[in-house]
Structure formats: C-alpha cells, structure tokens
C-alpha cells in the first residue's frame, strides 16, 4: 500500500499572541504550504483542529474562514474537535483522506487562542468536557491530575521528586526550541517549591495556557517522490476512547486509550516499542508523561517514574522524550498541540532540529484529550 | 435526595447512570441508594485553581462503595482536606455544590445539588 507522506510542516510562535484564531490558523497554514512548495489552490481537503474557538472568542466556522484566507476555495473542509486531542484527531482524518484516495493533497491546521481569558475561565472552558456529575463538583483537568498523581505515588512508592524531574527535563529542552512559550531552565527545587495547584502537584507540574498554531501538508508517498521533496511517512496511526467519567476506570493510573491507540499504531507500522527512537508525549501534567511511558509499552507499570530520574528520556538518553520541550515548556494551544508534536518529529527525522537535534529514524507522538478520554498515537518514519 | 448507583440486569453497579451498563452492555433495571452508606477514599486532592463559582480551595475525592460485594465508585467534594487514602467517609447533602450562574455550562442543563463526603471518626 502507498503510504501517506508529510511533505510540509510548520508551527508558529507559542505563547501570548495578539493574533486571534483566524490569523493564527492562516499563518501556520501558509507556512506549511510554503514548506511543501504548494499553493492554496492545490489543496483537496482542509482539516482544522480546534477545541473551542466559539467558546473562547465567539468565532465559529473556522475551517471555511481558513479555506478562504488561503485561497483553497473548492476544497472539502471540516473542523475536528476532540478536545486536547483535536490535533491528533485531525491528523487521523487527514491520514484517512489520503489513504482512502478521497484527497490527493490535504492540509491540516490546528490552533487555539486562549490567553485573552483569565486562567479560571480558560480552565472552565476545558472542564466543560466533563460529565455533569463531575462538573457540578468543580472538577478541573488539573484536579484529575492531582487525584491520579497521589494514587500513583502511593501505589508504586514513587518519590515526588520523580515528577519534578520531568518538568526540569522538558524545560531544559524548551530552551533550545525557538517556538516555545518558555525558554527557561528550572531546578528541581523551583518545581517543588512552586505554589500548589492540585495537591500533590504544583504550578511547574502543569503546562501553561497558550496561543499558537501548527500545520502539516499530506499526500501519498509516491507523489512525494515524484515531487522530489523531503518527507516523512505515517507508518502507523491509531485512535481510541476511554470512559467519559474518569472515576469509572478500574485503575485511574492506567490510560486505556493510550494502550489501545498505540497497539493499533504499532501493528500498522509493524514495530515494537523498542524500535522507537524518540517520542513526543502529551505532558499536559508531569504525571501524564509517566503514565504514557508505561501504557505505550516503554516501561512496566509502576516504573515509568524512573525514566527522567535515570536520564533515559533526556535528550542524550536511550529514548529522548519531548525534545520540543513538551506541552510543559513549549505550551499547549489545545487544537495545535497534537500537530506541533508531529512537527517536532518531522524536523527531528529530517535533521532540521538545530540545537536540539537527536539521531532518529522513527518517532512516536501521543496526543491525549480530556484525562485520557480520547487518544491518538502516530508513528512516523523517514526512509533512508 | 438520594445518591444513586444504577444496577444492570447482570448485577453490575455504575454511577452516574448510563443508558446501558458500561461493563456488559446490559439494561439498567434498578437503582441503589448509597446516601446512608459509608465509602472509602481511593484518592483525593485539594484544588486551589478553581473555575468561576467553585469554592476555593476545593477538596475532591474518588470514593469507593461496595454493595453486596459489588463495587462502585463516584467522585465528589470533601468537607475537609484532612483525609488520607483509605479514609472512611459518609455522604452529606449539599443544596448547591457550585454557583450554577458563574460557569460556562448552562444553568438549566443539569442539577447542582449533591453530596459531599465527610470523614467518619
């Protein structure tokens, strides 16, 4: 089967931006098309990953707005919302469009504009994904992280410092990413002494609220070869769903959506976890990086906390994780995050990652929505 | 007001109620009131960054109950942050768990009363 290839990619500056959602999406879309050497008129399908432009700024219909702004009139357009996993879900839709033959060239753009709202309001927009019986208690996504982290640390007798080491690692990586929201290294002490947000987790265990966008251009591998452009291929992709109500999971420290979506991706790519050279994981909270390391099959249950402590997941380790800085330091504009993860793999696999370059031929991205409610896992490869 | 778990035709319990049993897909045939029972804290947190209309700090727990050997869990506010994993707690009725007018959710789209959990001495 002809594989799906990514022939262009972009991400914009993450952080506090003056631009609103239409401009953020158009900037990333135009940059990815330019990277691929395509103009808007060549786009057959256009997907926009976005969680809440209506709730955040009162702008709906963003896919149509983007098609017009990029000169992609005539293209089939669709907005994809899977909350924090909208980027991964958009990639799944974009991959399907090429793999099925419905589209010869697909543009995927993700973005979110959030920082104009106070943190409490942005937190509430995100918390609106919960069940009414959860929402009425004032549950937030960070509070799910606190609940899960306490249980994990107690269940596996893991030291609190092990979570801090993930924040330290990802902040260190972010220093070398020019698009990152935070380009500042932090110490373990800074993390452990920062204000409590959801006990036992503190401010530095959480990603920030972010504006930003990212984009990918997809076609078939055979067309990519004909075009004579640099490209990476989607070797495997899978998506899965866990419970909507978080307390209904038998073990809250196991992310079933991660396990099931990655099983599909590994099978399609015909590889094992040990074949992966680098990974971009959804570290919206430090504890999530640990749980994903375990449920993606890199570590046994209850041992993922050792990875950052021992240095395995550092940039010079055996499995570099979040060389981009992760959501933690790069920032987390909801709809853009899953696409920015793949952007990082794209530049790493093509040797364009500059100061943060690692040696890698195969990378994995895991994009998580809710508290593991919806998950997409993607495996990318570069051919020799 | 009761704290209701749904029971399916095969005897599995779940809460909140879904149209079919999440464990086996069976039909819901009955409900069990947990408001007079005690449960156990599975895990808990104190959230200090709360959304509009939510008390600050907000103590929250996942609480496990067992009814005739059948387990069921729920999530709710705690009356205090002075609990531990494994603490025994009992439900206490509260008319308004958060201000229905302050958040993004439409006030009429759901109920706002329910149960907090209080440690049993």
Task: Explain the overall architecture.
The complex is a heterodimer of chains A (384) and B (121). Chain A is built from 15 helices and eleven strands. With 384 residues, chain A is an alpha/beta fold. Chain A has a domain at 4-117 and 210-227: Thiolase/Chalcone synthase (Peroxisomal Thiolase, Chain A, domain 1, 3-Layer(aba) Sandwich). In chain A, a hairpin with a 2-residue loop joins strand 5 (196-198) and strand 6. In chain A, helix 1 packs across helix 3 and helix 4 packs across helix 15 (334-349). The mean pLDDT of chain A is 97. Chain B has strands at 4-8, 13-14, 28-33, 39-47, 58-67, 70-77, 88-94, 114-119. Chain B starts with a strand and ends with a strand. The mean pLDDT of chain B is 97. Classes of the chains: A alpha/beta (384), B mainly beta (121). Chain A binds chain B through residues 55, 119-121, 123-125, 127-128, 131-140, 142-143, 146-148, 150-151, 154, 195-201, 243, 245-248, 252, and chain B through 14-16, 22, 42-55, 58, 60-62, 73-77, 81, 85, 97-98, 103-105, 109-112, 114.
């Amino acid at each position: 089967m002809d594989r799906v290839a990514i022939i262009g990619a972009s991400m914009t500056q993450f952080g506090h931006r003056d631009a609103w959602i239409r401009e953020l999406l158009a900037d990333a879309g135009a940059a990815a098309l330019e990277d691929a050497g395509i103009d808007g008129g060549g786009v057959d399908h256009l997907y926009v990953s976005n969680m809440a432009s209506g709730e955040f700024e009162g702008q709906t219909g963003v896919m149509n707005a983007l098609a017009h702004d990029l000169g992609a009139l005539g293209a089939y357009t669709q907005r994809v919302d899977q909350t924090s996993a909208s980027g991964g879900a958009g990639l799944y839709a974009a991959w399907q469009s090429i793999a099925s033959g419905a589209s010869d060239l697909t543009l995927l753009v993700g973005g979110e504009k959030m920082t104009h709202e106070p943190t409490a309001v942005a937190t509430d927009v995100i918390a609106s994904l919960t069940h009414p019986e959860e929402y009425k208690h004032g549950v937030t996504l960070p509070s799910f992280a606190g609940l899960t982290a306490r249980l994990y640390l107690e269940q596996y007798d893991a030291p609190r410092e092990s979570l801090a080491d993930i924040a330290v690692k990802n902040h260190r990586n972010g220093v070398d990413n020019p698009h990152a929201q935070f380009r500042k290294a932090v110490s373990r002490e800074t993390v452990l002494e920062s204000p409590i947000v959801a006990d036992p987790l503190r401010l530095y265990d959480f990603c920030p609220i972010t504006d930003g966008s990212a984009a990918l251009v997809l076609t078939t591998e055979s067309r990519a070869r004909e075009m004579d452009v640099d490209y990476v291929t989607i070797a495997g992709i899978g998506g899965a769903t866990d419970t909507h109500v978080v307390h209904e999971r038998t073990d809250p420290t196991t992310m079933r959506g991660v396990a099931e979506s990655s099983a599909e991706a590994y099978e399609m790519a015909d590889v094992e976890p040990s074949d992966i050279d680098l990974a971009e994981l959804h570290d919206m909270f430090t504890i999530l990086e640990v749980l994903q390391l375990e449920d993606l099959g890199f570590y046994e249950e209850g041992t993922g906390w050792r990875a950052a402590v021992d240095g395995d997941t550092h940039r010079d380790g055996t499995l570099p994780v979040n060389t981009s800085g992760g959501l933690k330091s790069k920032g987390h504009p909801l709809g853009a995050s899953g696409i920015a993860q793949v952007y990082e793999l794209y530049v790493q696999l093509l040797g364009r990652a500059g100061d943060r370059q690692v040696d890698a031929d195969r990378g994995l991205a895991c994009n998580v929505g809710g508290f593991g409610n919806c998950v997409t896992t993607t495996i990318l490869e570069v051919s020799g | 007001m009761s704290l209701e778990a749904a029971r399916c035709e095969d005897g599995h319990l779940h809460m909140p109620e879904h149209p079919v049993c999440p464990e086996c897909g069976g039909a819901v045939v009955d409900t069990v009131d947990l408001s007079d029972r005690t449960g156990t804290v599975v895990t808990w947190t104190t959230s200090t960054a709360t959304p509009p209309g939510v008390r600050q700090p907000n103590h929250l727990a996942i609480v496990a109950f067992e009814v005739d050997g059948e387990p069921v869990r729920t999530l709710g506010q705690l009356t205090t942050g002075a609990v531990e994993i494994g603490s025994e707690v009992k439900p206490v009725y509260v008319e308004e768990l958060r201000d229905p007018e302050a958040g993004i959710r439409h006030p009429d789209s759901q109920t706002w009363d329910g149960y907090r959990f209080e440690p049993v001495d």
